[in-house]
Write a structure and sequence with these properties.
The protein is built from nine helices and eight strands. By secondary structure, it is an alpha/beta fold. Helix 5 links the parallel strand 4 and strand 5. The relative contact order is 0.17.
Length: about 220
């Protein structure tokens, strides 16, 4: 069935946010006496909820992970959010899908206000009918919760789920889509591997924004 409602992840799917996020994580880790000079080691922080990554990769408690987000934002909200750029081909992808009459939304674990600011900065905001993200206290941060929130705000019903496709680059996007009961497509130009995407439930995977758009419009999900 052709999908005519597309939910996009932001980091690693629409924009390459690695420089700003990894520098923000580096900044936060220093506050805890952890000196990490190799930003490449911090790439796994791009996409998933930040507190979970601090816990998984540096052994933080839940409380420390939530505190580290506050420190991270000291850097990211001033400088890091601008250390970012749309992936080549993304603007053409969005223009093509919008021209075809598809409904486009953003479903991200990034704070909603920050996501809107990033999209507006790069001129991408007008392509989307709704931008949904984490709330200020990070209680709505898991991808399935964000997806359900976007559906609710856009008045999409259970019957509309067959029309919705979640597009993302990490396993959290694929798993969140499955928990929310919608289809999922992975992209390989972001930060997740083919194995990660397929084993976490991707229905199909595209290598480039161009391929992604072509397959969405054709309904070719083999």
């Amino acid at each position: 069935m052709r999908k005519d409602i597309i939910f996009f992840d932001l980091d690693g799917t629409l924009t390459d946010s690695m420089p700003g996020i990894t520098k923000g994580v580096q900044y936060a880790l220093r506050r805890y006496g952890i000196m990490e000079e190799d930003l490449n080691k911090l790439k796994p922080f791009v996409g998933p909820p930040l507190h979970e990554s601090f816990m998984e990769y540096y052994g933080f408690s839940l409380e420390q992970g939530m505190e580290a987000i506050v420190v991270f934002r000291e850097y990211y909200n001033v400088t890091g959010w601008k250390e970012n750029a749309p992936y080549p081909g993304v603007r053409d992808l969005l223009e093509c899908l919008q021209a075809a009459g598809l409904g486009l939304c953003v479903a991200t674990s990034k704070p909603e206000r920050t996501a809107k600011r990033v999209l507006e900065h790069f001129g991408l905001l007008p392509y989307f009918t709704f931008v949904g993200g984490a709330d200020d206290d990070s209680t709505r941060v898991k991808k399935d919760d964000v997806i359900r929130y976007v559906m609710e705000e856009c008045k999409y019903t259970e019957a509309d789920k067959e029309r919705i496709l979640m597009v993302g680059d990490r396993h959290h996007d694929m798993e969140g889509a499955k928990k929310a009961g919608i289809s999922a497509a992975g992209v390989l130009y972001g930060y997740g591997s083919l194995k990660e995407l397929l084993t976490s439930g991707a229905d199909w995977v595209a290598e480039t924004p161009k391929e992604l758009g072509e397959r969405i419009l054709a309904g070719d999900f083999r």
